[in-house]
Amino acid sequence: MNWAVLKDAKWWSLTATSLLLGVIGIVLAVYNNSYWAYFVIISAIFTLLGSNRGDQLTGL
Length: 60
What we know:
By secondary structure, this protein is an all-alpha fold. It has three helices and no strands. It has helices at 3-7, 9-30, 36-58. The model has no long low-confidence stretch (mean pLDDT 93).
């Protein structure tokens, strides 16, 4: 990873939010809550946004 990506607060917030939503989705799936799919889909969207942000910062 590039140092510019690791210093970026927006990238960190996107990554942390994605991980948190993924964990919430898994916990909801374990307890048979039907909302788990929404959390997993939103987590995937945040992962995509974080990847795009990292690409912008590294200039790829």
